[in-house]
Write a structure and sequence with these properties.
Oligomer: single chain
Structural class: mainly alpha
CATH topology: ABC transporter involved in vitamin B12 uptake, BtuC
Distance between the termini: 45 Å
Largest sheet: 2 strands, antiparallel
Main location: membrane
Radius of gyration: 21 Å
Strand content: under 5%
Strand order of the largest sheet: 1-4
EC number: 3.6.3.17
Keywords: Cell membrane, Hydrolase, Membrane, Transmembrane, Transmembrane helix
CATH architecture: Orthogonal Bundle
Number of helices: 15
Number of domains: 1
CATH class: Mainly Alpha
GO molecular function: hydrolase activity; transmembrane transporter activity
InterPro entries: ABC_transp_permease
Length: 333
């Protein structure tokens, strides 16, 4: 094949990928993000600066990391309301393990990281066990886990904030690498891993199959229970990573940390085009949804909009996303 023919083939392949993205809804979503950014930059020249854009990425990092696991759960037509409480619990458990440590206590810092990940994985596994094998309703299961995790966080901390962690722990939330803040780097890495896992692996294909039709997936030989279990466990792990980043960024663990985070995660996933009915979604769409929420928050703040109205506008965006998803589902029926 000549170089000209090869270039033409590459161009056609790229065009097909772009068309698929446009049809999937990611194209219009990205266009909306760009238009909002342009409008905000015109209204407030401070918006389109490196510091502001970096600040947006740092602010949405915790929601973004947790939203990766949430995307997998929602694609299987599940829901996870416990993510915010798990972010708080994992950060507090890590803080308890590292109590009394010095900034240079590398061993305790690593221990805190490992314990936080283990707690997140265990909580996610419990959610998955109840949903997959006990066949309990995901909403009720994760609502119960939300209450238990928050209560355990308060019990462990006695309602008090814990401060001062080893550098080996806070590095994931407070350090910079090549001028880029670590929360942003961690979020981008988690999104990249999530995208590859969802689109390029057998497990990812099974997640879509289970979300599309569990019975058909079972008849096709897909281990439905195991797939559902693993998605909830993955959500628990990403919640733990988000908890590590949040606690590291603040250098403290708050009993009330990440309160209401589960709603922001679900909002980002749904705005990103993942269907609440299951079987459809993407990590790229979730990333755009996360950034869109951050842009709206920071942009309206720069414009001096009352925070109450900001919350109202966020709710309106979520309502519009859910409405569009419902209309799309009806057209397919």
């Amino acid at each position: 094949m000549t170089s000209t023919a090869a270039n033409r083939a590459d161009t056609e392949a790229l065009s097909r990928r772009v068309i698929r993205q446009l049809r999937s809804g990611i194209g219009p979503l990205f266009a909306a993000l760009v238009l909002i950014c342009i409008a905000l930059s015109i209204a407030s020249p401070e918006f389109l600066t490196t510091s502001t854009l970096t600040n947006i990425m740092v602010q949405v990092s915790v929601v973004g990391i947790a939203a990766v696991g949430g995307t997998f759960v929602i694609i299987t037509s599940g829901i996870d309301l416990s993510v915010g409480s798990l972010v708080a619990l994992t950060g507090m458990v890590a803080a308890t393990v590292m109590a009394g440590s010095t900034p240079g206590a590398v061993g305790l810092g690593i221990a805190g990281l490992c314990v936080a990940l283990a707690v997140g994985a265990a909580a996610g596994a419990l959610n998955g066990l109840a949903v997959a094998w006990l066949r309990l309703v995901p909403f009720i299961v994760t609502l119960a886990m939300m209450a238990m995790a928050r209560g355990l966080t308060l019990a462990i901390s006695d309602g008090r904030t814990k401060f001062d962690f080893p550098n080996a722990f806070t590095a994931f939330g407070a350090k910079t690498v090549a001028g880029l803040p670590m929360p942003m780097i961690v979020m981008l890495v988690i999104f990249a891993i999530g995208h590859v896992l969802l689109r390029k692996t057998t497990f990812g294909h099974q997640v879509f199959a289970v979300g599309g039709n569990q019975e058909a997936a079972r008849l096709a030989g897909i281990p439905v229970h195991r797939v559902v279990f693993l998605t909830y466990m993955l959500a628990g792990v990403t919640a733990a990573i988000a908890g590590i980043v949040l606690a590291g960024r603040l250098n403290s663990a708050l009993p009330s940390a990440a309160n209401g985070l589960e709603l922001q995660v679900i909002a980002a996933v749904v705005i990103g085009g993942t269907s609440l009915a299951g079987g459809r979604g993407s990590i790229v769409g979730t990333f755009i949804g996360v950034v869109l929420i951050g842009v709206i928050n920071v942009g309206l703040s720069l414009l001096g909009v009352n925070p109450f109205w900001t919350q109202f506008i966020q709710g309106g965006v979520i309502f519009a996303a859910v409405l569009l998803d419902a209309l799309s589902q009806r057209r397919k029926q």
